[in-house]
């Protein structure tokens, strides 16, 4: 589980203008992250526009990512959804070579009860050969996984090793951090609250803005984990505006605009997403200059 301390980055999926996957851009992105000092990568989380990818594309991206990383950092595969049986089938059919864990988002759209969420993750934990990281993001799923459900799962299943938490509720965060098993990791799922959450005991961040600024973010996280919060504070403040801009027209449109400015990959997205507007892209470009 030490593999998942520090900075994780939820990789975007670069696309070509015709909508195909841009593997040259993906290689450049992966190398950029590793050179920037990130501790691990998440392949095909929400930021990877996974909902728009076919099963064949997902397999090809996972294979390419594993081959490109070549053991340099741990990799987490995003395998989630709102059809439990389909997720279990995907996990059982997943070639886990080169991967270190599965990140699975709490079921969206269906709005299950807390017991339904528990049973969903129970089935996943029992099916997965890899450790499982829970992911709570009510702003996208339409339902919150409560601290009680998270703690129940954390105590009941040894292979549920962490949660990526993005509920935006510090009371909920505090309850999980207070009552979790000692070796269960709490990972921030929201860039702007990384510093205060590490101060409370979080293990780090799975970041979006880290796609564009891996070194700035990982340096800040490392300072926080070393207890050097006064030194980390300025980077925390510096990142607030670029992070806001990356989300103002949706994720990953904003961070892809930033990546285009950094000449890592183009800003193409798949419908129903559209690229960030010219105005927002110009503001992102202006803000990026401060870090270069």
Automatic annotation (TrEMBL):
Keyword Nucleus among record annotations: no
Annotated positions for site Part of a proton relay during catalysis: 46, 109
Site residues (L-lysine inhibitor binding), renumbered to this chain: 51, 82, 86, 108
SMART domains membership: DHDPS (SM01130)
Subunit structure: Homotetramer; dimer of dimers.
HAMAP family on file: DapA
Protein name per UniProt: 4-hydroxy-tetrahydrodipicolinate synthase
Source species: Hufsiella arboris
Gene this protein is translated from: dapA
């Amino acid at each position: 589980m030490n593999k998942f301390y520090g900075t994780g980055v939820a990789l975007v999926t670069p696309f070509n203008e015709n909508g195909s996957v841009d593997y040259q851009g993906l290689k450049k992105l992966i190398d950029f992250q590793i050179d920037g000092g990130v501790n691990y990568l998440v392949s095909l989380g929400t930021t990877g526009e996974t909902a728009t990818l076919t099963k064949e594309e997902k397999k090809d991206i996972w294979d390419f990512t594993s081959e490109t990383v070549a053991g340099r950092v741990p990799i987490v595969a995003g395998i989630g959804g709102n059809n439990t049986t389909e997720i279990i089938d995907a996990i059982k059919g997943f070639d886990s070579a080169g991967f270190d864990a599965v990140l699975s988002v709490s079921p969206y759209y269906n709005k299950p009860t807390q017991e339904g969420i528990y049973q969903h993750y129970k089935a996943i934990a029992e099916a997965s050969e890899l450790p499982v990281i829970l992911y709570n993001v009510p702003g996208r799923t339409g339902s919150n996984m409560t601290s009680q459900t998270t703690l129940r799962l954390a105590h009941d299943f040894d292979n549920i090793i962490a949660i990526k938490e993005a509920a935006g509720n510090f009371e909920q965060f505090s309850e999980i951090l207070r009552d979790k098993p000692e070796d269960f990791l709490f990972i921030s799922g929201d860039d702007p609250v990384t510093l205060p959450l590490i101060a409370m005991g979080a293990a780090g961040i799975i970041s979006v803005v880290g796609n564009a600024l891996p070194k700035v973010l990982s340096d800040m996280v490392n300072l926080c984990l070393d207890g050097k919060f006064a030194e980390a504070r300025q980077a925390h403040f510096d990142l607030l505006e670029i992070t806001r801009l990356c989300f103002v027209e949706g994720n990953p449109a904003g961070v892809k605009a930033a990546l285009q400015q950094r000449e890592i990959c183009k800003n193409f997205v798949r419908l129903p997403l559209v690229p960030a507007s010219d105005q927002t892209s110009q503001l992102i470009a202006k803000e990026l200059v401060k870090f270069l």
